[in-house]
Amino acid sequence: MNRSSSDPGGPIRQANRELILGAAEKVFARAGFNGATMAAIAEAAGLPKANLHYYFGNKQELYREVLAGTLHDWLVPMDGITPEADPRSAIEQYVRAKMAMSAARPDASRVFANELLHGAPVLGDLVHGELRTMVKRKAAVIDGWIAAGRMTAVDSIHLFFTIWAATQTYADFDVQVRAVLGRSRLTARDHQRAADHVVSMILRGCGL
């Protein structure tokens, strides 16, 4: 648990936690859970290995924190999908937020995807609980927009699957995208082009 802001150690603790989590995303993305070691994560973070065990008791605890944090960050942009929101603006903002996260934190997406490909042994409870609950709630909002004639009828649950697939592919299958585009890395212009395309396709599919 983070200390309060009145605790002078709080900012340092939080900075170290973020540093460790960022390093862990990279190591888990490249080596997988089994191949990753606390020593490799400590090296990537530029911290003594003992520091990792101070903040996270073991590799599994750190791995779960990376996954849970990624899921949380992905769910936050869904807050804009509310009954009173404009459907076009809300969906566009959500898609662009997901595209931005794929561009900024591709390793987090790859760790999450690898966890799911292995049956979600660590994240299963959150996928079946928090994720499912949030999607059902937001799908109900979309169904309300449809019933009110504010957008074309679509399968609201599968709309989220489509958005996830379209946005996360730029992180999870970055190698494939770069190969086809002839890039050694994706540029800011490439990401903007991709975001504009995905937004356009999703909005047109929703009649927006």
Describe the structure using short key phrases.
208 residues; 2 domains; single chain; Tetracycline Repressor, domain 2; mainly alpha
The first-level CATH class of the largest domain is given as Mainly Alpha
| CATH homologous superfamily label of the largest domain | Tetracycline Repressor, domain 2
Order of helices and strands: HHHHHHHHHH
Mean of the pLDDT scores? 90
Approximate strand percentage: under 5%
Question: Which range best describes the helical content: under 10%, 10-25%, 25-40%, 40-55%, 55-70% or over 70%?
Answer: over 70%
**CATH topology of the largest domain, which one?**
Tetracycline Repressor, domain 2
Q: How many domains in all?
A: 2
User: What is the first-to-last residue Cα distance?
Assistant: 43 Å
Secondary-structure class: mainly alpha
Count of helical regions: 10
The geometry reads as globular
| Main β sheet profile | none
Query: How many strand segments?
Result: 0
Q: Uncertain regions: pLDDT < 50 for 5+ in a row?
A: 1-8
Under the CATH scheme, which architecture of the largest domain would be assigned? Orthogonal Bundle
Q: Any idea what the radius of gyration is?
A: 19 Å
What does this structure look like?
The chain has 208 residues and is mostly helical. It folds into two domains: 49 residues, Homeodomain-like (Arc Repressor Mutant, subunit A, Orthogonal Bundle), CATH 1.10.10; 139 residues, Tetracycline Repressor, domain 2 (Orthogonal Bundle), CATH 1.10.357. Helix 1 crosses helix 6, helix 2 crosses helix 3 and helix 5 runs antiparallel to helix 10.
